[in-house]
Amino acid sequence: MILVTGATGLVGSHLLITLLQENNAVKALYRDKKSIDQVRHVFQYKNHLSLFDKIIWTKGDITDIPSLTIAFQNVSKVYHCAALISFDPKDEELLRKTNIEGTANIVNCCIDFNVDKLCYVSSIAALGDAKENETTVTEETEWNPEKLHGDYAISKFGAEMEVWRGFQEGLNVVIVNPGVIFGYGFPEKGSGVIVNSVKKGNPFYTNGLIGIIAVEDVVNCMTSLMNSSISGERYTLVSENLSYLDLFKRIADNLNIKHPYLHANRTLTSFAWRADWFLAKITGKKRAFTKATAKASHSKIFYNNEKIQTTLDFTFTDMEKYFTLYASF
Fold first, then answer.
1. Domain named NAD-dependent epimerase/dehydratase: which ranges (predicted)?
2. What is the DSSP letter of 174?
3. What CATH code is carried by the domain that includes residue 122?
4. Which of 7, 157, 215, 259: disulfide with 126, CB 3.0–4.6 Å?
5. What are phi and psi of 8, to 5 degrees?
6. Residue 322: which of 220, 184, 201 has the closest Cα?
């Protein structure tokens, strides 16, 4: 039996399809029954609605240990996809509780229930920091606690530390660090936010780089790693490193709309995150653009994907079809 946390999210829902296609018995952890409908839409879109009824839905929360003890019954493998994604500093405590404490709970249950293997979905945000004059980050790049990191990145790094603790205690683990994930089903989250911004005619761009990947590639790498004897390794999952301008142009071309045309330099983004802070202060709205995200928008770090390509002899999907896909929404 395989347990999938975060089963009602982008990665989790697409992962369910792949696991069921391989005739696995799958438990899917959910918190809100309404979110299951979105998973059904993903199955329907991918012409696998017949597999949907094979899912064993289990209500639970990674921060609620009693619900996890029920979910972990008869489980041999775990894909831990659940996480809180937020860039609002007000969510710092919740990020730590969900991403770090929640992952610690998953690791502890894996050990207590003698689970064979755990796959943790982390993020490129948790990878290390390139040193001065370096432009490439790999799985071996060291995290520098003196550098500015957003609360989300810190929480994902902390979660990885919990997974490595489990590995030291005898649990077989693999970690994947995907970039921004493109895929069908969740247009209001993740990459969908980027696409919607372009759709609305956002004229601004920065000269930073962004690492992107298709959700199917993430899922295929995860299942291949879990079906292998590999343990104690992490893998960067990025198919392309694009400038924000190139990404926005490719999306805009598929939408047949105007390209962004105003370069947002560091001075402008510095003003923008301060304005965002002020508006959040007086309106109570969540932060959308912080000091950390402003810094990241100018970063020209290249995420190296050689390790996963060499390990699995993996070929990434052409991302162009995903930009076309969003044009159909």
1. 2-233
2. E
3. 3.40.50.720
4. 157
5. -95, 10
6. 184
